[in-house]
Specification:
By secondary structure, the protein is mainly alpha-helical. It has helices at about 5-15, 35-40, 45-60, 70-75, 80-100. It has two domains: about 1-65, no CATH class; about 65-100, no CATH class. About 15% of the residues are buried.
Length: about 100
C-alpha cells in the first residue's frame, strides 16, 4: 500500500500538484492528497487521489492470484474465470436460501 507521501511524490512526478479549493482552503487543507480524501473532502483533486490509489491496489491485487475463485473476484479481478466462479457461488447461495425459506 502506498503511503500518502509516496502518492504525493508520484503525483508531483506526473505534474499533478495539490491545490487549495473553495472553502476547504480556509481550513488549511491541501487538496489532491489521499489523506485529505480520507478526512472527508470530495473535491475533484482529492477524488482523483483516491481513484489513483484504488486503481493501483486493484492492479497489485489482481496479479499473482489464483484465478477462478471467489476471493480473487472480491479482490478486484474481473477475468472470465473469476467472474464465472463468483456467478456460480451466488447461484448456489440463492438456491440454498430458497430451500431454507420453503
Amino acid at each position: 500500500m502506498l503511503t500518502d507521501e509516496e502518492v504525493a511524490r508520484y503525483r508531483r512526478e506526473l505534474g499533478i500538484t495539490p491545490e487549495k479549493v473553495g472553502d476547504q482552503s480556509r481550513r488549511g487543507r491541501t487538496h489532491g492528497l489521499l489523506s485529505t480524501y480520507r478526512n472527508g473532502c470530495r473535491c475533484d483533486p482529492c477524488r482523483g487521489a483516491n481513484r489513483d490509489k484504488e486503481r493501483g491496489r486493484r492492479r497489485r491485487n489482481g496479479s499473482g492470484r489464483t484465478h477462478g475463485i471467489v476471493s480473487t473476484y472480491v479482490a478486484g479481478c474481473r477475468c472470465g474465470e473469476c467472474t464465472e466462479a463468483n456467478r456460480e457461488a451466488k447461484a448456489a447461495y440463492r438456491a440454498r436460501t430458497r430451500r431454507r425459506a420453503s
